[in-house]
# Entry
Amino acid sequence: MPSALKSATLVAFLALTLGGCTKSPVDKLESWAVEVCACENAECIKTVSEKYGGLAENPPKDLNDADQKRVLAAVQKGLSCSMKSAAKGIKDKLMGK
# Structure
């Protein structure tokens, strides 16, 4: 790989990596919801929730109206997906899967 391409790849990787560090708590909460909805079992949900440090249980405070709506929507989405995954897991166990 030419060194210019290596440098560009490294810069892109660093930008993506560091970009995650600057997410607002509201953005992180929305990311938590998306990742939880991609889970198919309780272990995955636990791992994702640990990754985000309990942000869903302790959402950010002192938010403007738009951010409050985003937080509420993200928490509702994440909890709804968690319940669906839990129900699927129970059904799978009952069915012997």
Observations:
- Residues 23-94 form one domain.
- The first helix runs from residue 3 to 21.
- Confidence is low (pLDDT under 50) at residues 1-8, 10-19.
